[in-house]
């Protein structure tokens, strides 16, 4: 296998040794583990199949994000191949919130539900699973979130269980659901084409949930993308890809992240997440078209609400930064479903941990996003007793708190980050990382094609970032009467022009360009136009030359 020197440089810097190269680059990777290595898998499959054999009404209990939606559709398909007595329930983000709820269990019981299988939630639902059991409802929890002191009653399949020895801990919720499906297929006759179809769901959910694109996830996603490239077995997913102006034959992980996942997610953010499940389960062309139209419209409305809330939040940043480096922005009367995205965009703008709060009567709901080096979960977990509810991980959190406690929490968090800065003064300094430096003259189609060998890219296997020093820019033009995006060319030593584009902060970048030569942090991709393929530079940051 001949590998481009720049690709070799990147994989060596990422610690991918020779023994891993064949698996890493293989179009048909084989790194996958026996599903029965997951703790409680044998007992879980037995209890679920007993429920099937006894004719009990099985309810797949999901979550309203893409991971939960794809997990729900996956098990609906697989269990639905064994029994017609299966349905699903996804709580409302706005009315119920994440996870199992007693009220939801009551509704399931009223609808005749007798056995609940959770996906992407439930590990910490001790009271709720105990309540279900008291009503005679069996449970099987499948999840991937960190465990807490509160632990669900009954069987839990979660690679993060303390007693679990599964070799790969980075599965998404849909990854755990897929392993359950594989285990079921070992015990019962599940059609092979159906298992190939639900692998596409596992691919979409794993990418959307920003799981590590390494190990078993990489195998799963590579094989799932290959199924999509060969025609996409799921008709709803295929229609959504087509309606998103994407080519299923060349679909990449980034296309799912930015083109497909937001549309599936939009239904859960703004209203009824079951719309995404319906799309993936339907075989009716009219229903599929209608679901796609609704998802696209929901995503358009999500963007409008998000932009509106972001502008309001941005206008408050200066005042909040005067209070300290842990930024809490209050945005009321905005749609709750977009505030997490807004927190992330504000964090990017100021490189500080940001929590967006909104008031509802005597309480605040908060959603936060952090930066590398600041563990948001650990910071807030110190004050767990002040919250009505709280959860999250190092990079993101969500909570509900009594309004009377909010000011004290804000002051405490700003004091904490001040102490962190005393220990590490550069904690909040913005850093520009790159995988390798490159000359403009070295950018060509051969390099762009070679970089495709690193796909699928994602967390822990990011799209390579290059640094081009002292670049000459010409032909700058802003796009769509918008100062956020622009096209331009980079000039090589022999006078060639390399196509380039920047999709954010173009006006700030242009200020650097007008001063002369620049340093550019960028990705290198293939741009195809009318069957002509060229290398194209995607600029991430443009700085005056020599600033780095």
Can you describe this structure in just a few lines?
43% of the residues lie in helices and 20% in strands.
What would you say this structure looks like, in words?
The structure is a single chain. This protein is of the alpha/beta class. The protein is about 45% helix and about 20% strand. The strands form 3 sheets. The chain has a 7-stranded mixed β-sheet with strand order 11-12-16-17-15-14-13. A 5-stranded parallel β-sheet has the order 2-1-3-4-5, with helices on both faces. Strands 6-7-8-10-9 form a 5-stranded mixed β-sheet. Helix 4 packs antiparallel against helix 8, helix 8 crosses helix 11 and helix 10 crosses helix 13. It is globular and about 75 Å long. It starts with a helix and ends with a strand. The mean pLDDT is about 95.
Task: Name the features.
548 residues, alpha/beta, 18 helices, 43% helix
Describe the SSE topology.
Blueprint: H1 5-13, H2 18-25, H3 41-53, E1 58-61, H4 66-80, E2 86-89, H5 102-110, E3 115-118, H6 126-134, E4 138-142, E5 155-157, H7 173-187, H8 192-208, H9 215-229, H10 235-243, H11 253-270, H12 274-281, H13 285-321, E6 327-330, H14 339-350, E7 354-360, E8 363-369, H15 376-381, E9 387-392, E10 396-402, H16 406-423, E11 436-437, H17 445-451, E12 466-471, E13 473-479, E14 482-491, E15 497-502, H18 506-514, E16 518-529, E17 532-544
Helix pairs in contact: 3-7, 4-7, 4-8, 4-12, 7-8, 8-9, 8-11, 10-13, 11-13, 12-13, 13-14
